[in-house]
Structure formats: C-alpha cells, structure tokens
Specification:
The complex is a heterotrimer of chains A (301), B (385) and C (286).
Chain A lengths: L1 H15 L6 H26 L7 H17 L4 H23 L4 H21 L1 H4 L5 E2 L8 H25 L1 H11 L1 H6 L4 H27 L1 E2 L6 H14 L4 H17 L8 H16 L3 H10 L1
Antiparallel strand pairs in A: 1-2
Chain B lengths: L1 H22 L5 E8 L6 H21 L6 E8 L4 H13 L5 E3 L4 H14 L3 E3 L7 H5 L3 E3 L4 H15 L4 E7 L2 H16 L3 E8 L7 H10 L3 E5 L2 H14 L5 E3 L7 H13 L2 E4 L9 H18 L7 H20 L3 H9 L3 E3 L2 E3 L15 E5 L5 E4 L1
Helix pairs in contact in B: 2-11, 2-12, 3-4, 6-7, 9-10, 12-13
Chain C lengths: L1 H29 L6 H44 L6 H23 L4 E2 L8 E4 L2 E4 H23 L1 H11 L1 H6 L4 H23 L4 E2 L4 H15 L4 H21 L5 H15 L14
Antiparallel strand pairs in C: 1-4, 2-3
Classes of the chains: A mainly alpha (301), B alpha/beta (385), C mainly alpha (286).
Chain lengths: 301, 385, 286
C-alpha cells in the first residue's frame, strides 16, 4: 500500500518539479529523456536478449529523417512520426534476418556496419534528405517546453513500465532472458530462438526510431552528423553506465551523462571537463559493475 | 546681450561634449551571444575568432559605435557540432539572457543555431558559414553576412574562363555542403561555357585517402582539375597530388587557411602551382583598414595565445560581425523588430569590405573582399586578380 | 591505372594490418574489443612527430613504441583486467579511456592539424605511370617487416605459444601454469606498439590531429571480422583484403561510400559466413 503511495508521490514530483527549472535545464532534461528512449532500445536488445548492437543510431536516424522529410512535405507530423517508427521497425526486421545468426562480436561489428551504411545514405541522398545541407524548420512548433516535458515524461514512464513488465512478469521476458543466458538450452526447450531474436531486433529498432522521431519533432532541425557511429557508441555507453539490464538505470544514466558535462562547464570551456567526464565513466564501471541500475537495486533492498 | 548669448553659447559648447561622453554606455548594456568552436577539432580556428570578436567589442565600447549602448559579448562553445550548438544557443538565450546572436562556424551547427534563433525570436547574424540561403531558409530572424557559396563560385568560374585555357575539366569534391554546391554550380557553369566535364568525383569527407581519386585523373585526361575540399583534407589532397606528379593545373575552391596551409604543404602546393580562392589573405594589396586589423589581431594573439598567428578570413568575419551588430543597434536599438529593420538597411564599410543585405537577408557579394592566390615554387603566395 | 590501384591498396593494407593486429591480440587474450586502439595510433603518431627533430625518424618510431608500451600497460590495468568476465563493461571502459586520451592529446598538442614532415615525403619513385612516394614505400616495407616479426613471434616462440594457449582457453592455460595476467599485459603492450608504428609510419602521409583515431579503427574492425578474432594470420590477410577492396571500390564503384563498401562487403560476408571467414576454434559449451 505504502509502496504505491510512494510511487504516486514520486511521479507527482517528477511531473511538477522540473517545470520550475529554467528553460535551459528543462531543455537538457527533455533531450536526456529523448536519448533515454534510444538507451531503452539497447536495454531491450542487449540487456534482455544479449544481442550487441552498435548500429542503433541508424534506426534513430531513420525515425528522425522520416518525420522530418514527410512533415516538411506537408504530412501531419504525428502520422509522419508513426511512419518513421514503422520504417525503423521494418529496417530492424531486415537487419535481424542476417544478424540473428551472428554471435557476440561479429554481431557488434555487423551492426556497426549497418549504422555506418545508414549514416552514409543519409549524407549522400541529398535529393531526399538534403544531406549535409540539413533540414531546417520542421513544422512541429507550437508546443511549449512544459508540454514537451510532460509528453516525454509520460512516454518514458510508459516504456519503462512496459519493459519492467516484460522483464518481470511476462513469458516473453523469460524467453528473452533464456536466449541471452543459454541459447542452446533455449533451443533444446523448443524455443524458436531465431524468431525471438527477430522480435527483439524489430521492437528495439522501433523504440530507437521513436527516439529519433521525437528528437526531430522537438529540435526541428536535422543533419546527418547527428546519427553517426559516435552516437551509437554513446547510447551503448549510457546503457552500460546505467546497468545494461536496467532501463531505470538507463534513464538515470542518460540524465547524468547529458547534464553533467553541461554542469562541468564551470571548469572552463576547454578539455578538462571532458577529461573529468571520461574519468567518471571509468569510475562508475570500476566500482559499480552493474551500473547505476545495480546500485538502485541494492539500495532498494 | 551679445556677451550673454556668447557666454551661453560657450557654456553649451562646453557642456555638449561631456554630455555626449556621458551618453556612451548610458543606455545600458546589450548582451550578444557568440557561438564558436572553442574545443574540438576546429578549436584552432575558434580561439582566434574569439579574440577578434573581443577586439571589436572593445573598440565599439571605447568609441561609442553602438549609439550609447555597451556591447557585452558572451561566448558559447558549440564545438562545430549541431547538438552542442543547439544546446549552447539555448543556454545563451535562456540563462545568459543574450538579446542577439552571432555564429556559427560549421554549416551544420549554424543550421541548429538558426532554428533556435527563430524559435526563440532572437536575431541571429550568421557570419562565417557560407552555405547558400541559411538566412533565407531559417526565417526572418537570421541574417547572413558571409558571402554565400554560389556567389564565390560564380567568381571562380569567371576567373577560370578568363585565365585558364582548358576544354575539359575534372571536378573533385567532398560530400559536405561546400563540395556539393560547388559541384552542382560548377557543372552547370561549365556546361554553359561549353566545357566538357570528364571526371566527376564526390568523396566521403571523412576519408583521408585521396590516392584512389587521384589515380583516376591521368586516366581521364582533363586540361584542368578543380576541387572543393576543406581545410585539413585540402592539405592531404595537395600533398598526395604533388606526390603523384600529375602535370595538370589545379584550382581549389574552399580556401584552406592561408599561411597555415602554406606552412603545411607550401612546397607541394608551389610545385603544382596551385591557384585557389580566398576571402582574405594578408598581403601588400590589403586596404588600410585590413592592414590595421591584421596588426591589431596579430599582436593580441601573440600576447594571449603565446603563438604567432596568421590572420584568417574567419577572424575578420568575427570582427566585422560584432561591428555590424553594433551598427544596427546604433540605428535601430537592440529590440528585435527595430534591430532587424536596421540590419536590413545596413550600408557600412568594414574590414572585409562593403556590407549590404538583399531581400533574403544575405549579404550582397559585390562589395566584399574576394581574391585568388597562387602558390609559387618556393612555397610563398602571390595574389592574382 | 590498375597497377597504381594495387599499390595504393597495399599501402592502405599495411596501415590497417598494424592496427588490426593490435586489436586482434587484445581480443585474443581479453575477449574484449579495444576501443582505445585508434587513440593508440594517434598518440604514436604525435610522439613520433614530437621526437623526430631530436632522434631522427627511426629513433622517433622507437620512441613512439616505447611510449605506447607504457600506454598498453596502463590500458590493461584500467580498462581490461578489471573486467574479465564482464566484457561489455571492458569495452565501454576502453571507450572512456578513448575520451580521456583524445582530450589529453588536445591539451598537450592543441587541436591544429600538423604536418608530420619527413624527408621521404618529398621524393617519389615512378615506374612508368605508376608512382609511389618513398614514405609510402617505407610504410609498406616496414609494416611487412613488423608483421613478419609478429608472425614469427606467435608461431615459433614460447611467448607465442602461451599467447595462443590463453587465446583458446584462459582457464585451462592458467591451470597449466601460464601466468595469464603477464601474457595479457604483454599482448596489450605489443598491440599498442603495433599501433604506435602504424601512427608513426602513416602519419607523414597526411596531417595528424588528435581526432584522427576515430576512422582508423573502423577499417581495422572490418579486417578482424574477415580474418577472425584472435587469429593473427587471418587478421593480416583480412587487412590485405579490406585495403585492396577499398582501393578498387573507390575507383570503380564510388568514393562517397568508401567506408560503406568495406562494411557492406563485411555484412555480406557475415550473411554467408556468420562466424567469419576463419571461424574461431573456440567451441561453445553445451
């Protein structure tokens, strides 16, 4: 009973407190929450199902550019966003077909290759995406920052809840985790591991695409540089620092790794603050092997 | 009576100048945000741009060039990266409360800043990015004081037709916004002039290996090779071109920073007789205003960064931008609507030349400095016009 | 033109091979991909650049290797050893180190790209229509020599045998009395030294800048997939293949998609050979 009250109070605080922040910090929080959807996609794919992917930025880019291009052509943005997510899921499915047969590091580099391919396609398809000239003025304005925050908060909490449900209460979660732990045993139990992996790829790609679509709708400009392989590495980094199996840790890590470099600007506008950032990541990994999520779990007990 | 009015006149004459002096800065300070890459891989340019802008602000305040307002510059480090530029523009507007913006260096970052400027209704002056129509596309709050790519490319085509004898041409570009617009514009201009394009290559801008491309040149036998490759990559290309010993003349669009470029690949560039376009280079043909600026900046850079610095176009553009902003404030005040009207009516001579804006808020190119330089075999450069 | 393409491909392959071999060594003993490898190359290039005026080019290469040996030890302790068994964390830790190294380099050397000048850059050797600068010739020759040395080390020395044992199964190796930590450390040191030589040799070909490490690694990754993780010989062949394909692809297919060509081929290979062209000898425990 008291747990539920705590939860409601927590959500109430989350929903109202940041609205008192200045514009700049609200902007940071919103961006971090959009990022965290991409991190969730990593949690689902790598944390739950054990599939390494360094190409998530590709799906984010697909979602973002679909919304951007279609919205600029006059389509209603929500529909454009939906198409973005669907296209990302389709690509996830297509990538999963060959990728589901790959193991570990081969999978990692194969997905990296996919991410690079998407990035180069976005850059070179100038007629559609305007390539390096970028897209500007995506017509999704008119929503103020407070509303954006509440939208993102709701979306993230919903996805968080869904992932928690899958993880703890559903048969799908059990199956995904079996595939991660011991694929051969899973197959021996009659599970079609290929289909399971395909599902994981598709859904996680959809999540990443959603992150991209929301990003495009929020910042309203796009350039291909936003979706290069460095971004994929960043999502992976946030996911691991947050605890690869913990979406809650993922949100916290996303918030931390977005806001702390900003806060570190007091150290001056040069390289020292990035040095501190890199060292922080190392420290978390050394002392919190299960990431922030693991810390949260321990505190909970 | 006479002596009384004379005394009054004398008194007024005495009071007036001191009143004017008291006016300077008396209308308060205007905070102007400047976005530059201060860390990251373009920081070598951003750091001196910052000094140039600071010099301009000091002059404006000392000589009251902003109609009674004091200019206060607030710098943001956008790292030439769209996400950082977006966040920094937000920070400057909401936390630092700047009323006006200047920036950025890289086109992809400028796009981000332009979007923020229009959303937040803060006037922006894009002073370095030369991508076509940034101001036009971005909306009514953005002006572009740098010469856009298509204008510089028109001038280049004119020079090529005048000074180079060629019937066939090879076009090699990077896939960034300079390269792609250069390719599009040049192909059109070449076809109009009746020249044949025998080789047309677009290379990934992260790929430093130009050997493959260079290998194709002798095979296609052009009379002239024209390229649009930026900064570091340009140096890579020139090095590799010289090494390949290809006798075909080479012309380059995007100006790698003069002097730095010469220090890096001067000998190779001289060996192949590279001719390239530049917005600005320090030489005897500089106007007095330019020479004065060069002296000021070099002294300051030596003092603050402890290294000798060769003035680049971007330094000049940063200086001019602050002066342009001050001038618009003087004529219209810092409130957005009046400021934008004043900016649109700009007619002023600054270091880079004469500034006026067209209806799409881009600078008119005719009065702005634009030169061609050839590298001599000993590695030094000369201005050709 | 074809001959020129082949030569270009060889030069590329030499550079890729040196970097890829370092990655494969690390992977063999640690089962982790070293994301700081690109920065090892960068640091090697800068150390060589800084020391050339004092000790000449050969001395500079040696100096770069020496500094990187220390770097290898540091990497092993901070980013790899603590994460045995939790390989994904090790990978991310090496990313963190990568960030640190880039920023240290920017602080020490500044961000202005610099020309790494050597006398060998000036002269070219031309056979008919085919040309290659002496510097690039040295690249190919030196890489071949270093790789040959490494191959001999792995095949015929006791250290090589220990390395292969640890690569195959580090628990059994440990049970057999091999000091796994020492072998791992040596593998990383050698890998870092390889990277240093790659930086010092290919640095003069282009400008060097603190952010040059990013793209170096991508092609090395491709080489390892083709050649097999942990397999030194295979990796060298993989690098050769990637270098050649890029060189050919850039001319006959497209320059704008050059990185994609290598990776596209890679993805294709993985579709038909999901365990790489040279499958690992590690069997799964059932």
């Amino acid at each position: 009973m008291s747990r539920r009250v705590l939860l409601i109070v927590a959500i109430a605080i989350l929903a109202t407190l940041p609205l008192t922040f200045g514009t700049f910090w609200i902007n940071m929080v919103i961006t971090a929450l959009i990022f965290s959807l991409a991190v969730f996609s990593v949690n689902l794919l790598t944390g739950l199902t054990g599939l390494l992917s360094f190409g998530q930025a590709g799906f984010v880019g697909i979602g973002a550019y679909t919304l951007g291009v279609l919205a600029k052509q006059g389509h209603p943005p929500i529909l454009a966003g939906l198409y973005g997510v669907l296209l990302a899921m389709l690509c996830g499915f297509l990538l999963g077909l060959p990728a589901a047969r790959l193991k570990g590091h081969y999978l990692a580099i194969g997905t990296l290759g996919f991410g690079i391919l998407v990035y180069q396609l976005l850059t070179n398809s100038v007629d559609i995406t305007r390539g390096p000239m970028g897209l500007i003025g995506i017509p999704t304005g008119g929503v103020d920052r407070q509303t954006w925050y509440l939208i993102m908060l709701s979306v993230c909490l919903a996805v968080l809840a869904a992932l928690a449900y899958i993880d703890r209460y559903s048969a799908l979660g059990v199956i995904l985790k079996m595939v991660r732990h011991d694929e051969i045993a899973a197959q021996a139990s009659g599970i079609n591991t290929f289909a399971v992996k395909l599902i994981a790829f598709t859904v996680s790609a959809g999540l990443a695409g959603l992150s991209g679509a929301l990003f495009a709708a929020y910042v309203r400009f796009l350039t291909p540089d936003l979706f290069n392989e460095q971004e994929s590495f960043r999502y992976m980094m946030m996911a691991v620092v947050g605890g690869i199996g913990s979406p809650l840790g993922g949100i916290v890590a996303s918030l931390m790794l977005t806001m702390i470099p900003e806060g570190l600007r007091v150290l001056g506008e040069d390289n020292y603050r990035l040095l501190v950032y890199g060292t922080m990541v190392l420290f978390v990994l050394w002392f919190l092997p299960s990431g922030i999520g693991g810390l949260i779990e321990r505190l909970r007990r | 009576m006479k002596s009384y009015s004379a005394a009054l006149a004398a008194a007024l004459l005495l009071i007036a100048p001191s009143a004017a002096l008291a006016q300077a800065g008396s209308k308060g300070a205007v905070r102007v945000g400047v976005l530059l890459p201060l860390t990251g891989n373009t920081a070598w340019a951003g750091k001196t741009n910052r000094i140039a802008a600071a010099i301009a602000a000091e002059e404006v305040n000392a000589q009251d060039l902003a109609g009674g307002y004091k200019i206060e510059l607030v710098f943001g480090d956008s790292q030439c990266e769209p996400r950082a530029a977006h966040d920094q523009a937000q920070r400057l507007i909401s936390q630092e409360r700047v009323q006006l913006l200047i920036g950025e260096w890289c086109s992809s970052a400028s796009i981000a800043v332009a979007q923020v400027a229009n959303d937040e209704k803060v006037p922006l002056l894009v002073n370095i990015s030369t991508a076509d129509q940034i101001a036009g596309d971005a909306g009514p709050y953005a002006f572009q004081s740098s010469m856009q790519n298509r204008y510089s490319q028109q001038r280049e085509a004119a020079l090529l037709e005048k000074d180079f004898k060629f019937e066939s041409v090879a076009i090699i570009v990077e896939n960034n916004d300079f390269g792609l617009t250069f390719r599009k514009n040049m192909i059109a201009l070449m076809q109009k002039a009746g020249k044949k394009v025998v080789l047309d290559v677009t290379q990934d801008r992260n790929d430093t290996n130009w050997y493959a491309t260079i290998t194709r040149i002798p095979a296609s036998k052009p009379d002239l090779v024209i390229v649009s490759i930026s900064a570091v990559q340009a140096a890579n290309f020139v090095k590799q071109y010289a090494e390949a010993g290809i006798p075909t003349p080479l012309f380059s669009d995007y100006p790698p920073p003069p002097r730095i470029f010469e220090r890096q690949v001067g000998m190779q560039a001289g060996k192949i007789g590279l001719v390239r376009a530049a917005f600005f280079v320090k030489s005897e043909t500089n106007t007095p205003a330019q020479k004065e600026f060069v002296a000021k900046l070099e002294a300051r850079a030596q003092k603050e960064l402890n290294e000798a610095h060769d003035v680049t176009y971007w330094d000049v553009a940063s200086y001019d931008a602050v002066r342009l902003v001050a001038d618009a404030i003087k004529r219209g005040g810092p409130q957005a609507a009046d400021y934008l009207k004043a900016m649109a009516a700009t007619k002023i001579d600054l270091v880079l030349g004469h500034y006026e804006f067209d209806e799409k808020r881009g600078a008119k190119p005719d009065g702005l400095n634009f030169v061609f330089i050839r590298t001599k075999p000993d590695g030094s450069i000369e201005v050709v016009q | 033109m074809f001959a020129q393409i082949l030569i270009n491909g060889l030069v590329l392959s030499g550079g890729y091979a040196l970097v890829a071999v370092g990655l494969t060594l690390t992977f063999g003993v640690m089962r982790m991909v070293n994301f700081a490898e690109g920065q090892s190359v960068m640091i090697g290039a800068f150390v060589a650049y800084t020391t050339v005026p004092y000790v000449g080019y050969v001395g500079a290469i040696a100096a770069a290797m020496a500094v990187n040996a220390v770097l290898g030890i540091i990497l092993e302790r901070t980013a790899f050893r603590p994460f045995r068994g939790v390989e994904l964390n090790g990978l991310i830790a090496s990313m963190g180190m990568s960030i640190i190294l880039v920023n240290v380099a920017e602080l020490v050397w500044g961000t202005t790209p610099r020309p790494f000048e050597t006398v060998y850059n000036e002269t070219s050797i031309n056979f008919g229509t085919v040309g290659i600068s002496v510097q690039r010739l040295i690249c190919v020759a030196a890489s071949a020599a270093i790789l040959l040395g490494l191959w001999w080390l792995v095949q015929y020395t006791s250290l090589g045998r220990k390395f292969r044992a640890v690569s195959e199964d580090h628990e059994t190796a440990s049970a057999m009395g091999i000091d796994v930590n020492q072998v791992s450390r040596l593998a990383l040191v050698i890998g870092a030294m390889m990277a240093a030589s790659a930086g010092a040799l290919t640095g003069p070909v282009n400008m060097i800048a603190p952010d040059m490490g990013r793209t170096e690694m991508l092609n090395a990754f491709a080489a390892i997939i083709l050649g097999g993780f942990g397999n030194v010989n295979g990796t060298i062949l993989g690098a050769l293949l990637i270098g050649m394909i890029q060189s050919l692809g850039a001319v006959y297919i497209s320059n704008a998609y050059s990185t994609s060509i290598a990776f596209g081929l890679l993805v294709l290979t993985l579709i038909f050979f999901p365990r790489g062209l040279v499958p690992e000898r590690v069997d799964e425990n059932v």
